[in-house]
Amino acid sequence: MGSFSVVAAVLIFLAAGSSALADGYGIDDAVKTSAGSDTGTVECSFDERCAVTFDSLKLKLDVSVSHNDPARARLNLSGDTLDCCFFENAVSKFTVDARLSLIRQRLFKGQRARGLLYLQNEYVGDLYLRFHFRGNHLDDDRINKYGNY
Fold this sequence. Notes:
This protein is mainly beta and about 150 residues long. It has one domain. It is about 15% helix and about 50% strand. It has one helix spanning about 1-20, and strands spanning about 25-35, 35-45, 50-55, 60-65, 70-80, 85, 95, 105-110, 120-135. The strands form two sheets. It has a five-stranded antiparallel beta sheet. Strands 3-4-5-7 form a four-stranded antiparallel beta sheet, with no helix packed on it. Strand 1 (about 25-35) and strand 2 form a beta hairpin.
């Protein structure tokens, strides 16, 4: 009976681990700029940085979603040159509501925001994201583009 208990405990542990691995999310992504466009899909795990790359445009977007707060996705945008790329208000880091049915963020090139310095950066295109959650009910709680539940 003792060996049966050990085997049962190991099976329960492995089942719990595979369930945790099933928890995660996918991202459908697209970028449209005057230099071109790029689309893709990536699969990600909660609590780990997920890299979304747009190789043809030399852009990288790091996405982080916490298992404790999956409605908030933290974005960090970078490009291959110092003047590229920023979100609205000249920031490279931004948090979005992952429950939105489609997320659109305008992209700019220019200078990073510093203190109270007013910057007028050049609009270069748009980033589109849609999150899909596995092992989670956030997809059922999707909100529309106006932020209404």
